[in-house]
Amino acid sequence: MADTHALALDAMRAKGAADAAALAAKAVAGEANAQELLEKKAMVPTWRQRDFTAVPVGTPYKWGDMVYKLRQAHDATEHPEWTPDRVPALWAALSKEGETGAPEAPITASRGMEYTYGLYYLDTEDGKVYLCKRPGEAEGGAVVLQFLPHELVGQYFEEVVA
What we know:
Layout: H1 4-28, H2 34-39, E1 60-63, E2 66-70, E3 91-93, E4 107-108, E5 113-116, E6 120-122, E7 129-132, E8 142-145, E9 157-159
Parallel strand pairs: 4-6
Antiparallel strand pairs: 1-2, 2-3, 5-8, 6-7, 7-9
């Protein structure tokens, strides 16, 4: 006779795996924004050293207190130093929980981050807040930049003066 408790645990694990796969598929398709991925962070797998060549670009992974999306397929099996926080060419950082991009809750900027036009970012190097804005780009559009806001004033950002 099968153990009811074990069967229930197996069913919960299967449901959790299916939910996580569905969230990853939404992220890859561009249908899950950063806020949704952060709200469902418990469903996002933790990065581990492995081969990412068959993983779809856009798949989310956790590293530390951040969530990152895969930007480029690669093989990290022999490169433990290729963690998402260290290689922005391979990973795009998402904002931290509670950071909405509003002036009163700017997103902490990082190199390799996907910046969204119309949102506000806190530059950790100078402590200032910047608005992501570029002539000809509509609010809500996104761009991945390897620089912090203070390095791109006049091109992608304008400083917010209190």
